[in-house]
Amino acid sequence: MSSRILHKATAVGVLVLGAAALGGCASKGGIGAAAGATQSATVVTSTGTGSAGAASSTPTADNGGGTSTQAAGGGTASCTGSQLSLKINQGSSGMGHTGSVLVFTNTGGAACTLYGYPGADVTEGGSYNFAPRMNATRVSGTAVKTVTLAPGSSASAMLEWGVNPTGGGTANAANCPAMDGGYLEVTPPNTTDTIKSDPPLDMCTDLQVFPVVAGTAGQ
Description:
The chain is built from no helices and 15 strands. The strands form 3 sheets. Strands 1, 2, 3, 4, 5, 9, 11, 14 and 15 form a 9-stranded mixed sheet that branches.
């Protein structure tokens, strides 16, 4: 995976990309997390104009792309993008699917909360307009809970996808969105702070995201 990053505003954290490992999507029984990350990159703040972080874009009940609008419970304030760093760690194998673990860490000096689903999508290539080609679907049936992050503690969520191109055949830009020259965009829950980087080239179909849970395992 290359280190191409689109800087849209002031950097707010560090993104570490792990190599994609074979895994099984939720419909195939889920994947397990594996430790490890191999590449550093930069987290950038969106002002709400990106496809994964648009403040005016409210996703449907089963769509993980865009700004999350779930309300965090309790008296602790929701985490903001400036309080969070992100790692993307490897997942494990299963049945034509693979995945990663999105790990959000509170780098601020006060506790904050995360609730719900991160946004994730794969965009099309282009010099100025990176429109989404594939939005992550929210995986239902998993309990959604408020996670309180003390300074230095982490929450995580699974991101899974199919590695076989649409319609079969050899993967190319037409049947596998990750090969189109666009970006993988990740938006922490309840923020408009979009992280853009190269998607794994096998990110072809069935992009799915799970809600955040406490800890770094994603489940």
